[in-house]
Write a structure and sequence with these properties.
mainly beta; 13-stranded antiparallel sheet
């Protein structure tokens, strides 16, 4: 896996889970969501497991644990909040230290207002060293009101959204530009994310399993 891909994965995985309204599936303690990460050739390069650390049902602190074959797992924290039925996913902080969010909600369609044009700073971990990454998201929009996404025997009716993101860091030397496509299932969350670089698929994350509070084991699809 190339170095820019490690940074892209760390930044993008903040938006890899979501919730819609009570009982806030991803807001409930002991619920777990598993996403499989694929490279451009469709080969599995890792797994992302999300769980809740703390929260009150409308604002939570969660964690993503990324595991890759032959490598030590890495853990990052993430913030989510829900207000008036609109999910807000914290991507990072601006120059004043304020959290910057992306939003998701039921009823989104082409032309729906969405948060975009934001700049934020986040961190990525490479070879055990944390580096600052400055990001800009632009052109975020709904591009399809309904598309079907399948994983195993599970099928979701999703809203398709897209945006461009530029990542800048002294470690990278030059900016890295990617195009991100997400499929959001109303009432459930983001079930698939594709990242394109230079017009070609770079990586994909797909929901492949989950466990609710009353389930004995992670049910991989």
């Amino acid at each position: 896996m190339k170095t820019p891909a490690l940074i892209i994965l760390t930044v993008c995985m903040a938006a890899a889970v979501s919730a819609q309204k009570p009982p806030y599936y991803y807001f409930e303690k002991d619920n777990i969501a598993l996403k499989t990460v694929y490279d451009e050739d469709g080969e599995v390069i890792g797994e992302q497991e999300y769980s809740v650390l703390s929260g009150d049902g409308t604002r939570v602190l969660g964690q993503n644990v990324i595991t890759k074959p032959g490598k030590k797992s890495e853990t990052t924290e993430c913030h989510y909040q829900c207000s008036d039925g609109r999910l807000m996913i914290a991507m990072g902080t601006n120059k004043d230290g304020e959290e910057m969010f992306l939003d998701y909600y039921s009823g989104m369609h082409p032309g729906s207002p969405m948060i975009e044009g934001i700049e934020f700073r986040t961190q990525a971990k490479l070879a055990g060293i944390r580096i600052n990454v400055n990001c800009t998201i632009s052109g975020r929009a709904v591009t399809a009101a309904e598309e079907t996404i399948a994983s195993g025997d599970r099928v979701w009716k999703c809203v398709k959204t897209e945006y461009d993101m530029e990542l800048r860091s002294s470690f990278l030397g030059i900016p890295v530009n990617v195009h991100v496509i997400e499929w959001f299932a109303p009432g459930f969350g983001v079930v698939r994310t594709d990242v394109y670089r230079r017009g070609k698929l770079y990586e994909q994350r797909l929901l492949t399993g989950f466990r609710s509070a009353d389930t004995e084991a992670l049910a991989k699809k």
